[in-house]
Structures are given as C-alpha cells and as structure tokens.
Amino acid sequence: MDSLPLDLSHPAVRDYLSLVRLQVLTPLSLLINIATLLVCSVIVKPSIGSIIELHPTSISPSPRIIAVYVVVILLGQVGYCTLLVIARKPETKELVLSLVFANWLMALWAVFWVLEFFLISTVLLGLITLGLYFSPSNPEHYARFAWPGFGVTFGANMIGLAVVLMRCDIVWAVAATWICASIWSARPKPAPVYITVIVFTVLHPLALLGTLLYRRLTKREGRIALPPDEEHDTRRGPREVDAHWGSS
After folding, report:
1. Is 35 exposed, middle or buried (0-12, 13-18, 19+ CB in 10 A)?
2. Residue 237: phi, psi to the nearest 5?
3. Which end of the chain is more exposed for a tag (fewer CB within 10 A), N or C?
4. What does pTM read for this prediction?
C-alpha cells in the first residue's frame, strides 16, 4: 500500500487533523450526553429527579432548578459546536478534549445515578452512600446529619469563592450561585445548610463584582503618565521672549 501523499509531521496538516477530530468528537459526545440524560430523565423509572426525592439529604437540590442549569450548559455546548463550523479565528477552534471527556462522564453519571450506584456516580453524594439521608415519609427528620451537609456545602462554596476571587470567573460565579439557589429552594433544610447556601448565594455575585471593580481601578491606576518635568513643561507652553531672555 502506497503511503499517504501528506506529510503528517507538517504543522498545518496536524492542525487540520486536530480540527477534524474536534469537529467530530465534540458534537458526538454532546449528542450521547443529551440522549442519555433524556432517557434517564423521561423514560427510565425511577428517573434522575425521582431518585433525588426518594433519597433526600441535607444538601439535596431542587430537581427543576438543576434541570434548568443543565439545559443552559447543553445549549452553551450547542453554540460552541456551531462556532467550530462557522468561526474563522484559530483560537476558537483549539482542541478542547476536556469538554469531550466531560460529556462522556456526565452521561455515565446519569446511568449510574438511575441505577442508584451512588458511590460511583459522585463522591459528594457519599452522604447517601453512608446512609446520611432521611425517609420522605418522615420529613421531620430533615435535621439529621445537618453538620456533614454543612461541611460539604461550606467547603465546596469556599473553593468556588476562591476561584471567583482569583480568576474573576463570571461563569463559575453564576453557576455556583445557581446551585446554591437550587439547594435552599428545596425544602426542608437544616439551619446550618440553609444559612450557608443563602450566604454564598449573596457572596458569589459580590465577590465577582468586587473583583471586576478592583481590576478596573488597578488598570486605570497603572496607565503610563508623563514624568513630572515633562508634564510641567507641557503645561507651561512656549516661553515668551522678553528683554531678559538672552541672559537666562
């Protein structure tokens, strides 16, 4: 078999092949992710949302609000796949395999979740695996295991707050705020968890606004200014010629 009439070591050829892989793998992983989530949410019984209601914990979110959050993420990925086709800038078409892996992982998570393999589906949902949940028929037990739930919500939100402060990440701030809202909107909740997510619902936007304002002020202060002598001479303008000009 004759060799291909292409030099695979050439940078342009390698970039083209990387772009082709990106244009194929990203939409494929997104379609698999969407199809898996639809099957696990609509067809399979109990569904993803039903399992949350069957095994409530102190940090269980509202299934409807989380569904809106996931839909926004998927719509954003659809827009990204569209950019891969119509965009002309090379920066837009950089190979991002992490997004492909994330779609596969999310699809696998949905499968393991409906199978109630909680330990495999996610580490944070180890609250369920450890038996730290209450029966839906006994909602008065919601205050049980309040402090483990507080530890999870406080620790995760502190990490998110640090990311917002260091990177000024708008997407992270919006996502963290939305997840906090999904937790406190699902009632009942023990006081330590409820107060924590309410506080971070306010802190994440404030941290983002504060970081944006700080960067704007520091950028303005960092502008190059004229040296004092040159600035003084510029303001004085041309010197008038008088009788003492020659002696100066």
Report:
1. exposed
2. 80, -175
3. N
4. 0.61
